[in-house]
Amino acid sequence: MPRIAQLRGRRILTHRVIVEVHFRGRALRRHYERSAEAARGWGPEVGRRYVERVGVLMSAERVADHTLRALGLHPLTGDRAGLHALR
Q1: pTM
Q2: Do residues 68 and 60 lie in contact, with contact meaning Cβ atoms separated by under 8 Å?
Q3: What pLDDT does residue 10 have?
């Protein structure tokens, strides 16, 4: 399975953490934007799920959203504190 996307939490004045999605490379962004390329590169099932999951991340307003918890979102520690990952 490809590395999906990296999440960075950013604190704002209300102490809520908002979601920013950063892709590790151009290919991952292109696969999200053009689902046919994702299906061709990773197969139809993996490509479809990749696009769906990144879409959920893009549509989330806060890291605390229930839809993100369902994806297995968890905070990282150590030198990656402030970032989140998917299980």
Answers
A1: 0.67
A2: yes
A3: 45
